[in-house]
Amino acid sequence: MGWDEGNVFYSDQAQFPRRExxxxxxxxxxxxxxxEFIRAFRSNNGDLPYRESLVHNxxxxxxxxxxxxxxxxxxxxxxxxxxxxxxxxFETASAEVLASLRSKVATETGEMEEPVTGEVQxxxxxxxxxxxxxxxxxxxISKLVKISGITIAASRTKAKATYVTLMCKNCKNVKMVPCxxxxxxxxxxxxxxxATHPGEEPCPIDPWIIVPDKSKYVDQQTLKLxxxxxxVPVGELPRNILLSVxxxxxxxxxxGTRLTxxxxxxxxxxxxxxxxxxxxxxxxxxxxxxxxxxxxxxxPSAFASEEEExxxxxARRPDSYKKICSMIAPSIYGHADVKKAVACLxxxxxxxxxxxxxxxxxxxxVLLLGDxxxxxxxxxxxxxxxxxxxxxxxxKGSSAAGLTASVIRDGSSREFYLEGGAMVxxxxxxxxxxxxxxxxxxxxxxxxxxxxxxxxxxAKAGIxxxxxxxxxxxxxxxxxxxxxxxxxxxxxxxxxxxxxxxxFDLIFIVKDIREYGQDKLIASxxxxxxxxxxxxxxxxxxxxxxxxxxRYIEYCRARCLPKLSASAATMLxxxxxxxxxxxxxxxxxxxxxxxIPITVRQLEAIIRLSESLAKMRLxxxxxxxxxxxxxxxxxxxxxxxxxxxxxxxxxxTPELKNEIQQAEKQIKRRMxxxxxxxxxxxxxxxxxxxxxxxxxxxALLIMHQRDEVEYKRERHIxxxx
Length: 721
Fold this sequence. Notes:
Oligomer: single chain
Function: Probable component of the MCM2-7 complex (MCM complex) that may function as a DNA helicase and which is essential to undergo a single round of replication initiation and elongation per cell cycle in eukaryotic cells.
Strand content: 15-25%
GO molecular function: 3'-5' DNA helicase activity; ATP binding; ATP hydrolysis activity; DNA replication origin binding; single-stranded DNA binding; single-stranded DNA helicase activity
Shape: elongated
Helix content: 25-40%
CATH architecture of the domain at 138-194 and 201-292: Beta Barrel
Family: Belongs to the MCM family.
CATH class of the domain at 138-194 and 201-292: Mainly Beta
Low-confidence stretches: 1-24, 295-301
Subunit structure: Component of the MCM2-7 complex.
């Protein structure tokens, strides 16, 4: 075999087996090629990107695999196939190149000393498509993979030893043992390699003790990556995988961030595996490169130039706003204003950051309140499918922790970590909450902060942190009695606290109006939808199809940040003052505050609406035309809801007032304080005395408002207080 011909053999040759095709792949040749790549690779415009960035940033070097491939295909192939072997070489090469570049700098200043260079971390990036988490299998072990997902949890930072220093108990011999990277441990030899002198007792087996102070460490953190909600097959639970990040990637990713990562698919021996399963290992990914997928400045490269042209052409059309609104939930008949509001919510206003660091939200929140079967949930489902990022949840089935964030104890390490809820996972998108009125009050309070400040603060189990939740909220609710009752005031119908109502920019009261012509149109529309459900749609326009709208929304949100023009600002100011005056007058006449408050938040809401209307047309500033439409939307939704319900005091003639007082007198005569009677029986008795039924009902309603009577058993029984 030629073992004893005087060559020096390294233990590393076990790691680098000789390949067919000569010894060009040996450690030394690869090292030389990596050095050459950093020093000599030129980009398209002729500069030396890696050499420059290494001089400016000595801690890490971001390398694109495509550049490596164009320089030497064999190198990139090696990195892809055996990343665990070749990446340490790459890091050594970059540290050596840095040392040589540094010493040149030192000679120019006249001091001739070698500078101390630390380690350089290599981060890889790749333009290839990410693969699904479900396809990762045994074939991918120890190879480079690229997957995308959303981080749901991040552990605390730990110190991971890279070299462990061992000392022999018997002869005090010291030895350095390298640790496997990632979640692997060190391999400690069984015996001491000290040559015993005559008279010394030989070292026993397993003599080593670890000296922690002399060992070398790096930072390490584990993350949990879950599949993107849109990639999960129907009826399946989303999968998640463990990630291990070290050195400069530590603490860069908060929970709720969407990531695409490049890493080495590895395995580790879990601490608590089942008894008997000796050869079973748990998979994890050792991350060697992170790209954040969703950001405000999501890259311009995402859209092809012809696609951009088509978007700009569409925005120039005079009917573009109308066209977008017609694409919103086309299967729902009518509700034109709700569709316009949903379009505004999908496009969103402009986020602003003030010089003192205060952030103003740009996301629009909409509440749909009304009768059953008015297609509220249908709107929510449509938005969930169309918004680039969306989470759908139901009020009854979600708790405060599930919406915001929960603190969970890790099974193996017994430490606490954060797991983001629906509002965190939908960061940069829309949260659709159905059955909003069925939520418990304490759960609803939890989303106050998320809706206005757009952050979620956590102080639980020793973890104090702030998570981002820059989301729009689209909520649907029913009035407390199930249907919207015109006989009641707005306060009784809406039954949500003013604190939460003021956070909604638009509040729509959706009524199911019984009207012959309307019913006929709705019926024919529903029948048509059912009849043509299976038929293939003819797409006549280029600007149609669900996917087109999704892309257009993404494009507008990434590219366009409109500002208010001066004339529009003046117009808005005058209108806001006028609206406040009307509300004050209404409160003065009726003697009670409106159910929906009109505050500065509503002024900001109109600004956001104007900006989103400008964004739909890719316009740089929001003009008076946009403000007029925003005010119209605000008037038909929130203002209309604030004025809704009957105000008995406004439209009463003196005769009517007298009759109601008579009825109240009779009711009090009929019922002593504390007694109770069924409502039906009371109305029948008073009708026999010649009183009008509707007047008796009104009298009861007024007494109920004054808290003189109360209803029991689903409004069947009346109790006088």
